[in-house]
Amino acid sequence: MRWTALALTGAAATAGVALYLGSPAHKLHDPNHALQQLDLLYLDEPALGLDRLPIQPGRPALLVFCEDVRCPLPQLDDAQVTCSTDPELAARYALIDDGRVGPGYALIDAQGQVRYRTFDPGLAEHETEIGILVDGLS
Amino acid sequence: MTRRHWISAALVILTEGYLYIRYVQLGAEFHFWLHGLFGAALGLAALTAVRMLRSHRRGSDPARGVVAPWEGGFLGHLYSAVPDVLFLGFGVLHVLWMDVFAFHITLHFIPAPLVAMLMLFVLTLGAYGLAASRHPGSAAGTLAVASGVLVVAVLLAEPIPNSLTDLHIDRGFGLCPVRGHG
């Protein structure tokens, strides 16, 4: 009985991990899993390509990368939100995978420094998470 | 199983189910499995070690104790998930000192993180089973192997990148077991 319960627990965990690894969500996640929605501001360097984007200096910005300009965007009160489908710029932010642009985003602080980037296939629904990160920029 | 055990087992299953749904809503299944498996392994390993010590000193039955194995695993999961609770509940960003919560940051950067944590979890399940079956030597050996896996994984953890250039460096680790991904 005890060993059966332990085996079932191990099998359930293995099945759960296998299901996740085979899921469509996993295929859209960061190839470097460590950086998938890490929620840690691990970057601090001048943001790239700002001259090509409609981003006003002096205010935090959310730079979204996706395949289609009509991709859903989060609504944020404390940051300007802009979208790019440029594969060259996405590559510079390491937000291109196997030729696919995003979906993901970079966070740029009011001083024009990039502080964070991540793939995120559900970014439009993750306003709370992104809002906390934007608050952490200041 | 006592009545309390049945109730606690049901509560653990329900709460883990709720946590899984919340992590899925946030697109964070990777983090659920990573911290869930390691936290559960940590809790179960601690419980196993305590029961083995008590059995050795007092001759008590290692299969019995106040804390049930699922309770130990669940408490370990909660401990390892504290930074996620701080983030969502209080807006506290992840920072490096949060490694005090079961290597919450470093764990992301070990090679093949989910496979390594699954291996660790299965090893601690085995150690618990061996200890409860009165095979303390084998249980201690299995816990030692699990500890070795953890030490090697942490030693091989990639450094946290701090520039966009770093993100383009392939350090050669198999980060993901899925073909063509990572």
Overview of the structural elements:
- Chain A has helices at residues 2-21, 24-27, 87-92, 127-137; strands at 45-46, 61-65, 80-84, 96-97, 100-101, 104-108, 113-119.
- Chain A has 138 residues and is an alpha+beta fold.
- Chain A starts with a helix and ends with a helix.
- Chain A has a five-stranded mixed sheet with strand order 1-7-6-2-3.
- The radius of gyration of chain A is 18 Å and the shape is elongated.
- Chain A is built from four helices and seven strands; from the N terminus they run ααβββαββββα.
- Chain B is mostly helical.
- Chain B has helices spanning 3-25, 29-58, 69-80, 82-90, 113-132, 136-155.
- The radius of gyration of chain B is 18 Å and the shape is globular.
- Chains A and B meet through helix 1, helix 2 and helix 4 of A and helix 2 and helix 5 of B.
Quick rundown:
Chain A is an alpha+beta fold and 138 residues long. Helix content of chain A is 30%, strand content 20%.
Summarize the SSE layout with pairings.
The complex is a heterodimer of chains A (about 140) and B (about 180).
Chain A: H1 2-21, H2 24-27, E1 45-46, E2 61-65, E3 80-84, H3 87-92, E4 96-97, E5 100-101, E6 104-108, E7 113-119, H4 127-137
Parallel strand pairs in A: 2-3
Antiparallel strand pairs in A: 1-7, 2-6, 4-5, 6-7
Chain B: H1 3-25, H2 29-58, H3 69-80, H4 82-90, H5 113-132, H6 136-155
Helix pairs in contact in B: 2-3, 2-5, 2-6, 5-6
Structural class of chain B: mainly alpha
Q: How many DSSP helices of chain A?
A: 4
Proportion of β residues of chain A?
Answer: 15-25%
> Biggest protein-protein interface?
A-B, 50 and 47 residues
Helix content of chain A: 25-40%
* Shape designation of chain B: globular
Q: C-alpha Rg of chain B, in Å?
A: 18 Å
**Broad shape of chain A:** elongated
Q: Estimate the helix proportion of chain B, in percent.
A: 55-70%
What is CATH's topology name of the largest domain in chain A? Glutaredoxin
Mean pLDDT of chain B: 90
